[in-house]
Amino acid sequence: MASKHYSLLEICSVIVDNRGKTCPVGDIGRPLIATNCVKNTALYPSYQTERFVSDETYASWFRAHPEPGDLIFVTKGSPGQVCMAPDPVDFCIAQDMVALRANESLVYPPFLFASLRSDETQDQIGNMHVGSLIPHFKKGDFDKLFLSIPEEPEQILIGDFYLQVSERIHRLNRTNDLLESIARAIFKSWFVDFDPVKAKAEGREPEGMDATTAALFPDSFEVSETGRLPKGWQFTTLGAEAQCHGGRIQTGPFGSQLHASDYVAEGVPVVMPQDLSNRRVSTTRVARIKESNAVRLSRHRLEVGDIIYSRRGDVERHAQIGTREAGWLCGTGCLLVRMGPLWPSPAFISLALDRPETRAWISQHAIGATLPNLNTGILSAVPLIISTESLLRAFTRIAEPIEQLISANNEQSHTLAIIRDTLLPRLISGKLRVPEAEKLVEAVL
Question: Do residues 293 and 172 both lie within one domain?
């Protein structure tokens, strides 16, 4: 497969490079994405931002804006992270990133996307970093970053393959976002806003449920020393509920029990603080140890329904353990919450712990101003509102299938990403043909 080499500067027809400073921002308007919104694991940028720009700023302050299909490329902090601009582009970019528009006479845009994410290109970018504390890939070095560009037919085949698999992963993730929002909406209606209780108190039938489920809700409220609650419900703590249901809250293994030399390329996965994301375990960078070490640390083996917290840093985050992670290990720097075999609803406890009020409570009670720390005592004291067991089981019957589907989608998304990223260098080098790669992808769908 004959290829030519072009610099990144040569194969871009337009580079949208706005000023190296923050534009005027406010609380409403178009999102202004930051570098943490652009990750090589996602097709499009995310919207993890609280900064917005007005229509006036959008029209007058920026030099230019990305167009659909442009590549959003990070230049500072995490240089080389790249995503595709969606259609329509409903965000703005400012400092520390640029938008790259392919010169289509030289390169097929989806192929450029795949090539920038390839190991070869990422290694080049890594070797060209400047700055020890905050890595920076200078825009002035775009003419020194060279990409191997094959003939157009090969570009199209490889680019379309990479984009189609990425789109499948994106759709799975979007489906999970919808499923997550459904579970959260039901939880909030039942256990935060008390909608069914309010309806019954006013003589109305609760909406969106059958008569059997509606009968599980009380029809009045009662006031205690700690506040107003549906009749028969109670204020309690995480530790109290774990204890009375046969569970425990414990610290993960200490560094003296698990050394850097214990980690291996293949083996039992170990869940670390870096792996906790959106109530799930991310396997992007998961560490592993030998089975013999996992046996030695069997007290820290994970079970379905366990909750894992980071012990320091971003202490608000947690992940609920699903069937995929059963038998893995709780890592150093983590805390393990096990509600016990008698606890009726793992999904309930995870959603309760993810409430903004609960997250804020945990953050406020963490020890240390610079680097917040959690311990078992703090987690045990986390306040909870608990309904009757029959109602918790009714919620489980709704939430558990949602959780299982989310887990299955995550597993398929992860598998597709591994196949895509493993095959990409072989496709670019010509060692593997696209039809063979497509068969491998179809085999897992």
Answer: no
Final residue belonging to a domain, choices 149, 166, 198? 149
Tell me the CB-side half-sphere exposure of residue 229, using CA atoms within 13 A.
16
Are residues 334 and 399 part of one domain? no
3-state secondary structure of 126: helix
Helix (H) or strand (E) holding 238: helix 238-244
Q: Is residue 219 part of a domain?
A: no
Residue 409 tokens, joined: 């989608």
**Are 106 and 192 contained in the same domain?**
no
Dist CA 153 CA 200 (whole Å): 66
Q: Are residues 23 and 113 in the same domain?
A: yes
* pTM reported for the whole predicted model: 0.87
Could you give the count of Cα atoms lying within 13 Å of 149 in the half-sphere of its Cβ? 24
Phi, psi of 142 (to 5 degrees): -60, -25
Nearest in space to 286 (alpha carbons), one of 328, 319, 245: 328
From 293, 278, 357, 281, select the one nearest 325 (Cα to Cα).
281
Helix axes 389-429, 434-443, angle to 10 degrees: 170
Q: In angstroms, rounded to a whole number, what is the distance separating the alpha carbons of residues 324 and 283?
A: 11
What CATH number is attached to the domain comprising 330? Answer: 3.90.220.20
**Residue numbers of the domain that contains 274:** 234-386
Which amino acid, one-letter code, is at 187? F
Residue 317: CB atoms within 10 A of its CB come to: 18
Q: In angstroms, rounded to a whole number, what is the distance separating the alpha carbons of residues 432 and 401?
A: 39
What's the pLDDT score for residue 436?
80
Average pLDDT, 10 consecutive residues per value, the chain (445 residues):
86 88 86 92 87 91 93 94 95 91 96 95 88 81 93 92 95 95 96 96 94 96 87 96 96 89 93 92 89 94 95 92 92 95 94 95 90 95 96 95 91 90 89 80 69
Place of tokens 């590549």: 71
Residues 281, 306: Cα–Cα separation, whole Å: 12
Q: Is residue 223 part of a domain?
A: no
Rounded Cα–Cα distance for residues 329 and 302 (Å)? 6
Tell me the three state secondary structure of residue 334: strand
Please report, for residues 358, 396, 400, 439, the alpha-carbon distance to residue 216 in angstroms, rounded to integers and kept in the order given. Answer: 25, 14, 19, 50
Amino acid identity for residue 88 in this structure: P
Tell me whether residue 349 is in a domain: yes
